[in-house]
Amino acid sequence: MPRLSPKVEGFLYFLPLVVAVLFLFLYPVLYAVYISFTNMNLLHIFNYRFVGLLQYELMLRQGYLASLLINEVAWTLGSLIPMMALGFALALILNQRDSSTRSSYSPGRSLASSPSWSGAACGPTPTAS
After folding, report:
1. Residue range 83-112, pLDDT digits in tens
2. What pTM does this model have?
3. Which of 6, 107, 121, 129 has the fewest Cβ atoms within 10 angstroms?
4. Burial 80-96 (b: 16+ CB within 10 A, else e)
């Protein structure tokens, strides 16, 4: 079998990540766009039909666009800011150098000393007689 060039080999190692990102990000976005052109809702979840740009026309004509955008920004900021603040606070707590918490709890030390990791959960070690 011929040897692949380093660039092709690197691309082949990177390909599963690209496929996963495309599947986990691009598919939901495209499906959401598709759903926006139908009348799918909880009443028509299995029996829906294509309505085209009617949803967008109603949204613009009835003046829902401003309230929808305000709700979207509020939802995004209301969920993103607390999660980032909590993550930042936990990172600061776990990375303190002179903290008593650091000396009593270290994620790496607790993982390495867990019974399943050290082999204690495997039962007694057989001895040769």
Report:
1. 999 999 999 999 887 655 545 555 555 554
2. 0.52
3. 129
4. eeeeeeeeeeeeeeeee
